[in-house]
Amino acid sequence: MATPTSSGPSGGGQGGGAGRGSDRGPRKGGAGPGGGGRKQYFRRRKVCKFCDEKIDVIDFKDVRLVSQFISDRGKILPRRLTGTCSPHQRLLTVAIKRARNLAFIPFASGF
Amino acid sequence: MRKYELIFIVRPDVPEEELGKIITQMEGVVAGHGGKIEKIEKIGRRRLAYRVQRQREGIYVLFVVEGTGDTVKEFERRLKVNDLVMKYLSVRVDEELKRAEKAKAWRAEQATRKPRPRPSSGEAPAIEVAT
Q1: A98 CB within 8 Å of a chain B CB
Q2: Per the count of CB atoms within 10 A, which of B31, B54, B87, B118 is most buried?
Q3: ipTM for the complex shown
Q4: How far is residue A31's CA from residue A57's CA, in Å, rounded to a whole number?
Q5: What's the CA gap between A83 and A79, in Å, rounded?
């Protein structure tokens, strides 16, 4: 039980974990004003965009929406990067594939 | 009767009247096979994401149609025959719409049933941790 709690702050906020980073604290000289330890890397919000915005039908004709979920090479972005929930990811892959077929988005790009 | 979205891409070099002719022809196909046209939308000229028949642009046309499989079959056959049409895609949408409707109804029900369930939901995990 002790190990996960101690590894939590050290992994999350390397630049001076605010509360209980007593082991790691001395390296940076105390954890006094280093409040925003999480700033080092961008923390993506974990909410599914489609759940959040209540989009029931993922329309493949909506290029602006669908193209948010492909990489710059035209690949479908994985769920772990976008935070999409699994039911919506399934619908999304279908939408992306349809959009590709109609030349709304590329099959492959950036080569 | 099922609902379909039929989209096709016409070559960018066809004149406006020719495009109108194609659309009226396709309207006739749907009507001739007992279909009902819900919407016809000229999405218009768009840049393609990749080249199709050496073209970088295309004119998109969308039909939303209620009909049977035969309607769609004939529709697709006509598009295939027509040289001015570069690409097409038919998608059945009625089931997806039904599912969306259901989700919407569910959400509405959730909103009315529980105005603010915060205290009760906060208690539940606490018990779980204790045991």
Answers
A1: yes
A2: B87
A3: 0.77
A4: 48
A5: 5
Instruction: Name the helix (H) or strand (E) containing A8.
Output: helix A2-12
Q: Determine, for residues A56 and B100 on separate chains, whether the beta-carbon distance falls below 8 Å.
A: yes
| Nearest-CB residue to A56 (from B49, B87, B103) | B103
Q: Are A110 and A72 in contact (CB under 8 A)?
A: yes
Name the stretches of chain B with pLDDT < 70.
Answer: 114-131
Contact yes or no for B56/B48 (Cβ under 8 A) = yes
Q: Is the pTM of this model over 0.90?
A: no
Residue A43: the pLDDT is 61
Kindly give the interhelix angle for B16-32 and B69-81, rounded to the nearest 10 degrees: 150
- pLDDT, tens digit, 9 for 90 and up, residues B100-111: 889 889 988 888
B2-10 vs B55-67, strand pairing mode: antiparallel
Tokens 């009507």, located at residue: B31
